[in-house]
Structure formats: structure tokens, C-alpha cells
Write a structure and sequence with these properties.
The chain is mainly alpha-helical. It has 14 helices and six strands. The protein has helices at 9-14, 42-54, 72-85, 88-100, 102-114, 124-129, 168-186, 189-198, 200-208, 215-220, 226-243, 275-282, 286-292, 316-326, and strands at 26-27, 62-63, 66-67, 135-136, 264-269, 307-312. A hairpin with a 2-residue loop joins strand 2 (62-63) and strand 3. The longest helix has 19 residues, at 168-186. It is globular.
Length: 327
């Protein structure tokens, strides 16, 4: 996956980068993987269901570091999604998304480990955005973790110049902090993850109306939105397949832990600065600089405050010298 990103030869002598996914806007509602729920090969799906039934429906007790109860409803839901992802269509798209999203996936994995959170949270951006930091939904959610504008406080900033939902590194920290808050609130990971989808307020109301305080009871009795009902078993299915690929006859891309996708330099600017001008003067590929600073929605730093521009490792001193001549 290593590739040149359009740097000048002098820059390439100092900097090694992994290729970042394309920065084009991407409507997650229309993505191929979303169609698995609606437009999959019925015959292939039936074969995968039969394969799982032949295995006597393995009871999944744990997936991605989260315990799973052995109730008939939850086991059926998880196996249903496993079967869908195991169709030819599902496997091809799952592989492609994990491979294309490797840069961000590795960073999420590192942050999940650092915070000692359940491993399956590494796959939550797959469910949310397919690891595309420019993804947006028809409802207005944006970024790798699909934050709605009304749910970003106090984790992220959005104003006329900045939308940190589009920054995959900052939004990862924000999303994991939100999930930690949810877990402290509900004391249960399925509820915490479900609340990330439907909102903590909606989850509290559902629990208050329920005689049983479990995600699976809420889901089975339709006390939470349909999207949330599917959200948790879908994530558990992906984690189960990823952890037991050989068992499910699914090959998923591996990542090299030696790759460093989050090693950057930063340079502070105190006035508005065009990213295009900075890239030009640094002889740096503009799309690379733009992808590293995707939160700058006007492709320039704000005029009324200091801002730290993210750069490829090794370019900080050159950038300071360039900025001195510009500003």
C-alpha cells in the first residue's frame, strides 16, 4: 500500500508516508456495504445461512472483548449479520473497506489499546463510515465517526472555519471519549455502543420504560430505533469474523503494526494562511496537506486565532521558514 503522494524529490528524501484514502466526499447511505442489508445475492445468502446451521449455530460468548449472552434472540441477530457478510458480495466489500481504511484503522486500534477499551471498537468506524473521513449521511452526520452537529460538544469544534468532525485523528479521540462516557453512564458495553448510535438520552428513556435493563431486551421488544437494534449485532458480527476468519472461511487484510500513520509535525500560525499557498511554497502535494488538515473547511486557517497545521513528519522547520516569509 506504500506509495508516493506527489511530493517533490527533496521532500521524499526526508519523509515517508503511507497513502491516505481519497479525500472526496462520500455519502455513506449509498455505499456498497450498506446494500448488503437490501441488495445481496439471495441464493448465496441462503448457502451461508446453511453453512452456519451446519455448524450447529455456534454460541458466540465473546466477540471483540465484549461478553455476549447466549439468548436465542441475540445469537440469531449476530449470526444473521455473519451470514450477510459471508456472501461473496459481503466478503469482497468487507475486505476492500478494511484494506482501504488501513491508515485510520491502525490509528483507531492504537488508541483503543491505549485506553484499554474493547477491541471491537476498532471496527466501529466501519459500521459508521467505512473508514472514510469525508463520509456524510443524508441526516447530516459527518466524518469517520459520523458525529451529528448537535452531538459534538464538548469533544469537537465546528464554526465557519473549522469542522473537526472531518479530522479523523481528532474525531477518533472524541468518539472514544464519548463511548467511555456512555460506558460510565450505563455500565454495559452493548448499551454504551447502542447509545452512541441513538443518543444517551434516547437510551435512558428506553431503559426507564423497560422492566429489563439490557440492550438485547430493548432490541427484541423494539424499545429503541431499528437502526440501533441492528447496530450492535452488526458490530459484533464483524468482530467475530475478524477474530475467527479461518473458521468462517473469510480472509481479511492484515495490518503491519510497524507502520506509523499518526506521526506528524505541527506548526502554529497566528493569522489566516492558505493551505494551497503553504503546499506550493513547501513543494508539497496539496491534496496531502489538505487531507492532513481536513477540518479546515475553507482550506485556510482561521484569521482570528492561532491554529496548529498538521504536517508530514520532518517538515516543521521548513514550514516555519516558509510561514515567516508569507506572514
Amino acid at each position: 500500500m506504500t506509495a508516493s503522494l506527489g511530493f517533490s524529490e527533496s521532500a521524499l528524501e526526508r519523509v515517508e508516508l503511507e497513502e491516505l484514502p481519497p479525500a472526496d466526499e462520500y455519502y455513506i447511505d449509498d455505499s456498497p456495504l450498506k446494500q448488503i442489508l437490501r441488495l445481496f445475492d439471495e441464493e448465496d445468502y441462503a448457502r451461508q445461512k446453511a453453512f452456519l446451521e451446519q455448524k450447529q449455530r455456534k454460541t458466540i460468548r465473546k466477540a471483540g472483548g465484549i461478553n455476549v449472552s447466549g439468548g436465542q434472540y441475540e445469537q440469531k441477530m449476530i449470526h444473521e449479520f455473519i451470514a450477510r457478510y459471508m456472501t461473496n458480495f459481503g466478503k469482497q466489500n468487507l475486505y476492500k473497506i478494511l484494506d482501504d481504511g488501513e491508515a485510520y484503522r491502525l490509528y483507531v486500534r492504537q488508541e483503543v489499546k491505549k485506553r484499554r477499551l474493547p477491541q471491537l471498537l476498532e471496527y466501529l468506524p466501519l459500521v459508521e463510515s467505512e473508514y472514510k473521513p469525508t463520509a456524510k449521511s443524508r441526516s447530516g452526520a459527518r466524518g469517520l465517526w459520523q458525529f451529528m452537529e448537535n452531538s459534538i460538544a464538548p469533544f469537537l469544534t465546528k464554526d465557519d472555519w473549522i469542522d473537526e468532525r472531518l479530522d479523523p485523528w481528532k474525531s477518533t479521540g472524541a468518539a472514544l471519549s464519548k463511548l467511555e462516557d456512555n460506558y460510565r453512564m450505563f455500565g454495559d458495553w452493548p448499551l454504551a455502543i447502542g447509545a452512541y448510535n441513538c443518543g444517551a438520552g434516547a437510551m435512558r428513556r428506553a431503559l426507564n420504560a423497560s422492566p429489563v435493563k439490557s440492550f438485547w431486551y430493548l432490541a427484541e421488544h423494539k424499545l429503541i430505533p431499528e437502526e440501533t437494534i441492528q447496530y450492535v449485532p452488526k458490530l459484533l458480527a464483524i468482530a467475530e469474523i475478524a477474530e475467527n476468519g479461518e473458521e468462517y472461511k473469510v480472509s481479511l487484510p492484515l495490518m503491519s503494526e510497524s507502520r506509523h500513520f499518526a506521526d506528524f509535525d505541527y506548526v502554529r500560525v497566528k493569522r489566516s494562511l492558505s493551505l494551497r499557498r503553504l503546499a506550493h511554497d513547501l513543494r508539497l502535494d496539496y491534496e496531502t496537506l489538505k487531507a492532513l488538515n481536513a477540518a479546515l473547511i475553507k482550506e485556510a486557517t482561521p484569521p482570528d486565532r492561532a491554529y496548529d497545521i498538521r504536517l508530514p513528519m520532518g517538515l516543521a522547520e521548513s514550514a516555519r521558514q516558509v510561514i515567516e516569509t508569507i506572514q
